[in-house]
Here is the input.
Amino acid sequence: MTMAKSSRLPGFYDLSVAERADIVARWAELTAEERAALKEGLSSAQANQMIENVVGTHALPLGIAANFTINGRDYLIPMAIEEPSVVAGASFAARLVRQGGGFSTSSTEPLMIAQMQVVDIADPWAARFELLAAKQRLLDLANETDPLIVSLGGGARDLEVRVVPESPVGPMLVAHLIYDCRDAMGANTLNTAAEALAPLVEEITGGRVVLRILSNLADRRLARAKCVLPAEALAFSRYPGSLVVERIVEAYALAAVDPYRAATHNKGIMNGIDAVVIATGNDWRAVEAGAHSYAARSGRYTSLTTWEKDGDGNLVGTLELPLAVGIVGGATRVHPTAKVALKILGVKTARELAEVIAAVGLAQNLAALRALATEGIQRGHMELHARQVAIAAGATGEMVEKVARQLVAERRVRLDRAREILGRQ
Ligand code: MEV
Here is the structure.
């Protein structure tokens, strides 16, 4: 019998990069080659296969967020990000959430939408009727375009057709092909299917198909996360837990009603989400587009999370957003670090990956709100920022920590001061 692995990694923060990588390699049973990929990353030759006009690679730090328990299972979370405090914030929030039993998550089937825009139609309602009457023929044709996905249980599921009576170019039909893309992100599959259907759509409607492309508002492919924190878990310094619960709910309220705050609130959520999306080689622009368009779905841009106090005084948070991510295809299986990141996560399906990512987004939002609603974020931020300032001023080795500590102690986290300190050594 194997023991369930714990994502609690006490002292991890204080280790060297190599020591941390060794721990993660043992945790995830990485091979020597996979362990080496953490250090070496993408080669120029591999990069040259991925995009055009390659002149090099551009690396980001890869950190590990600890403490995550999701649906009763522990995960280590690889995060690729340049911003200090994000990995620490996620790990910290996940440790708090553990005290309430961890995150619970769910998701829809991995359904993506491809749009076909039909113009030059005199009788759009009749054309809509004809398209819907031919639905099975269209779905069958869409299924011929990717037999592999169909053999894996995916494929075309539905056709929806909207009439747009007025547009700058007159009436239009917008047909949505709903397609289950299983463990792929799905962009190629959906775009291929939409292009293949276009001639038949034109024949049936008598119109002309203009665009044939997936929609990044992937509102049929949602991931959700929830956490329940006992008030005691939130107590710290001079802040009783019940007060922190109330302050977090108040802080959330502004994001719920005000787009100016909602943008920043959601940016904090995306700090966590993008970092895992990037680490696993997924398309973070698609995820960003989906998240923000979903946040505006009511016509007014709002928070992606909710925070409430339940009848027992616990803090309850939820997050729901579209997450079009895959574990096959694209960079997920080409980029050596992305492959290792997926192995560290140990996710078996794209849905599981999406759910883990949603939990990280919720954790990130909790970390930000807890700090913002109490002591403010600058203290914690400054400690990490001070190291970057020290490096920018020319500090290396042990001097980085030494200069950073002095900058924070003096409350003068500034480049000129860091240079002065270094000059005096
Ligand atoms: C900074 O990257 C993210 C925060 O601004 C998020 C927030 O305000 O909720 C701290």
The radius of gyration is 24 Å. The first helix runs from residue 17 to 27.
